[in-house]
């Protein structure tokens, strides 16, 4: 997205409600295009990490006061700048230019980074140029830069699964020790600590996100006299599927009065590799056996498991719902963004699985209508689990097998080796990364629409969220679903191996063919995915992939 389009989008982000707020004058002026330096200075209420500062930024703009704007992002960035000042002198990077490549998904990610880094640029003297990518274009753009040796960015927003493609090829700059101290890296939740963010014992990542998929559901679809007739939301895929089929053709959604639907799968799975996670949500509970850390490939041979009976069952689930006309019209053209932001938050459907954006947007976005009726849980389990080693289905000891999908291991900020030979530019790049990954600014990003979800132990202080305007029950429900997924003993963790998104992307292509009837069955669809995966493994190198996959599983 070009800079002038960003400015237009920032202007459009102001709702009429925000325009009428007397305290929003500075926000309005900034978002209408006046110079950023004209924004009024605001004094931090306390030092970095203090309860006073954290409470101050959580009131910007305040839960229930409309969607945050560019001016809000700038205010938060300025108030959280004190940690930078401890390591960087004013004007120290004058004349330094850096190129930052990241996402513009849902007008978040890079949009927020621009606002957060505007006061950093003013203080340090550095200038940042932006490469903005749609989510579906991200993998192709990154892989092109790697394959052609034309890495044209100094700072990169990237997920841990890509570390094999970048750190494994020597394309990243190692994190200086002062950065880890500034961002308080010890505060990360356990599953995001090393080896995540590291390669060959060196650290390369400033974590800014803690990804997992959880289930969001409409509480008004359940309970006595509800449209589903169910007391509670089902906690297994078998129950979810039955509910969704039963709702087919039902009218009078309790919130909108429009047709009612059950679970929302994004049937336009082709989303640059990221859409594959939504099939994996279903497959994990069938395929991730508690006694086996692997669920995507066989760790001794790299033979795909994606066409075993567990994955075939997940694909069959979706095909059965398509056949039952259980989805909204034109669901074949609904990608994951549509299911979350247009459908579910807009009042369509009873449930879906997604990242934490649904939770942070439900109560703080102008476009959400479900904030008062939304609930959260870990991903549904399954009434049977496939034992790949034995080649048989088993009934779980507890009656249900749960395997939360820790999808993507979170976004991080990385610095490329383009700056490694210029110490001043290198320090500037790492300072920008540290600012975005700071402990305080991260709390704001977890609590408001940002594209990121809780990832630090300190994010699970319910009192801070309640003081910001969230009600206690919502916070405990939302944060609890994240925490329980992160810490689940049978969590499905993906591997940090080269080409992982090549596997995912080609799986999306074949899956869409299957959903559209180009393959005769779920098994044939899964077999096509497996054959394509075998080709990728052979192209990259089977023996090296085996070694890296086993290492990622801790074997």
TrEMBL record:
Listed InterPro entries: Bact_solute-bd_prot1, SBP, TAT_signal
Gene3D superfamilies, per the entry: Periplasmic binding protein-like II (3.40.190.10)
Entry keyword annotation includes 4Fe-4S: no
Signal found in the keyword field: yes
Compartments it resides in: Periplasm
Classification via SUPFAM superfamilies: Periplasmic binding protein-like II
Pfam family, one: SBP_bac_1
Leader peptide range in chain numbering: 1-40
Coiled-coil spans in chain: none
GO cellular component: periplasmic space
UniProt keywords, alphabetically: Signal
Chief localization: periplasm
Family the UniProt entry places it in: Belongs to the bacterial solute-binding protein 1 family.
Protein known as: Carbohydrate ABC transporter substrate-binding protein, CUT1 family
The organism of origin for this protein: Rubellimicrobium thermophilum DSM 16684
């Amino acid at each position: 997205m070009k800079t002038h389009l960003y400015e237009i989008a920032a202007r459009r982000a102001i709702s009429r409600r925000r325009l009428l707020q007397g305290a929003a004058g500075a926000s309005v002026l900034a978002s209408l295009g006046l110079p950023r330096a004209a924004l009024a200075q605001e004094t931090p209420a306390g030092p970095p990490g203090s309860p006073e500062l954290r409470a101050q930024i959580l009131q910007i703009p305040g839960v229930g006061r409309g969607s945050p704007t560019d001016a809000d992002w700038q205010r938060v960035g300025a108030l959280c700048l004190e940690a930078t000042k401890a390591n960087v002198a004013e004007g120290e990077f004058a004349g330094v230019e850096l190129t930052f490549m990241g996402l513009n998904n849902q007008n978040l990610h890079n949009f927020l980074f621009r606002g957060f880094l505007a006061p950093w640029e003013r203080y340090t003297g550095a200038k940042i140029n932006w490469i903005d990518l749609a989510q579906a274009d991200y993998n192709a753009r990154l892989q092109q830069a790697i394959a052609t040796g034309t890495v044209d960015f100094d700072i990169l927003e990237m997920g841990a699964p890509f570390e094999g493609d970048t750190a494994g090829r020597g394309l990243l700059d190692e994190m200086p020790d002062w950065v880890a101290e500034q961002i308080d890296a010890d505060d990360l939740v356990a599953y995001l600590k090393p080896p995540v963010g590291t390669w060959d014992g060196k650290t390369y990542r400033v974590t800014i996100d803690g990804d997992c998929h959880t289930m969001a559901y409409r509480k008004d679809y359940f309970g006595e006299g509800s449209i589903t007739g169910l007391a509670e939301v089902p906690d297994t895929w078998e129950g979810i599927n039955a509910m969704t089929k039963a709702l087919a053709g039902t009218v009078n959604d309790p919130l909108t009065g429009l047709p009612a639907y059950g679970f929302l799968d994004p049937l336009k799975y082709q989303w640059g590799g990221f859409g594959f996670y939504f099939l994996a949500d279903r497959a994990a509970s069938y395929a991730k056996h508690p006694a086996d850390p692997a669920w995507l490939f066989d760790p001794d041979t790299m033979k795909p498991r994606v066409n075993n009976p567990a994955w075939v069952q997940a694909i069959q689930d979706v095909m059965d719902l398509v056949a039952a006309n259980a989805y909204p019209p034109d669901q074949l053209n609904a990608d994951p963004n549509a299911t979350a932001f247009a459908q579910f938050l807009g009042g369509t459907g009873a449930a879906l699985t997604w990242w934490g954006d649904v939770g942070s947007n439900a109560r703080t976005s102008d476009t959400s209508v479900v904030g008062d009726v939304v609930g959260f849980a870990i991903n549904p389990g399954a009434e049977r689990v496939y034992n790949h080693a034995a080649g048989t289905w088993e009934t779980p000891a507890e009656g249900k097998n749960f395997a939360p999908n820790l999808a993507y291991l979170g976004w991080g900020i990385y610095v490329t080796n383009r700056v490694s030979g210029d110490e001043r530019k290198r320090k500037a790049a790492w300072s920008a990364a540290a600012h975005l990954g700071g402990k305080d600014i991260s709390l704001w990003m977890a609590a408001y629409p940002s594209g990121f979800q809780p990832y630090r132990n300190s994010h699970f202080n319910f009192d801070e969220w309640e003081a910001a305007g969230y009600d206690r029950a919502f916070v405990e429900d939302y944060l609890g679903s994240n925490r329980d997924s992160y810490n689940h003993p049978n969590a499905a963790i993906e591997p940090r191996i080269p080409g992982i998104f090549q596997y995912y992307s080609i799986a999306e292509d074949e899956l869409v063919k299957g959903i559209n009837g180009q393959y005769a069955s779920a098994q044939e669809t899964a077999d096509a995915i497996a054959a394509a995966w075998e080709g990728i493994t052979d192209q990259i190198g089977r023996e090296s992939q085996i070694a890296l996959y086993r290492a990622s599983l801790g074997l």
